[in-house]
Amino acid sequence: MATGRHLDSCFSAALRGLVPYEPGKPVEEVQRELGIERVVKLASNEGPYGPFPAAVAAIERATPELNRYPDGGAYRLREALAARHGVAFEEVITGAGADGLIDGLSQVFLDPGDEIVCGWPSFVSYVIDARKLGATARLVPLREHRYDLEAMLGAVGPRTKLAYLCLPNNTTGTMNTRGEVESWFERVP
Amino acid sequence: MRRAFDVSTPAQEAALASLSDPAEVARRRELNAAGRTELERVLRARGLAPVPGAVANFVFVELGEDSRPFHERLLREGAIVRPTHGFGAPQAIRVTVGTPDEHAFLADALARALAPSA
Prior knowledge:
The complex is a heterodimer of chains A (about 190) and B (about 120). By secondary structure, chain A is mainly alpha-helical. Chain A has nine helices and four strands. The radius of gyration of chain A is 21 Å and the shape is globular. Chain B has a three-stranded antiparallel β-sheet with strand order 1-4-3, with helices on one face. Strand 1 (about 40) of chain A pairs parallel with strand 2 (about 80) of chain B.
């Protein structure tokens, strides 16, 4: 139909190459679809014990003011994080989850034709957010299920704008040593 | 470049309150470590091999074949794990660390899913 063909041609070129990310289904949906009573969700790396009691209390205290926009600069939170980690206030950014931060980093740094480097298999948002912006993902196979930092150094090139070290790695849960990471920072261009 | 209001007030307040409770952080860390050990045990008891050296709140298991059928069988028994096709590992699953009760449920679900008639 004419309208459908026109709409298809409006979508950005970058969109065509994307495979949709399939997040885990919520428990209720699985119960409904399969007609089963109890469902245990171990698919999304959620903590199983609920927010801290202090956090629940803080959320309740904040509820009456939800008609107001949040603090876009997250001032008090960034102040607390900077103090805790011994860095400058300006060096702390907040985002809605790791995805929020990866999206922000990708938008700030990536032009079409730029490259990112990451291990693989690893966190898929690195790749999706790069491809959305017309950038290329150089995927470096894990070595024994761990990030292969030597091989990643080899994948860094003149068009590399972002290199992601997923520590611990999401999928495999493995970690690299302090020595390996320090060596990376000493040698990466 | 960043959307200004993505980090909500409840999220900011919850984060601040959580940062001020190091005792609870320590308690959760211990629960996670014990839970991860138990989860690995439950999986190995069924002949599955979680990748060693996992330090976070999830483990990774290679199945040697497309993991979607196994994920489906387990789903029908009420246990949801993550097939990692989207992450570049189509023959593996990722399983999150849960509570002791959830691990016991998973153990039963695995037994039924892996039974010869399943």
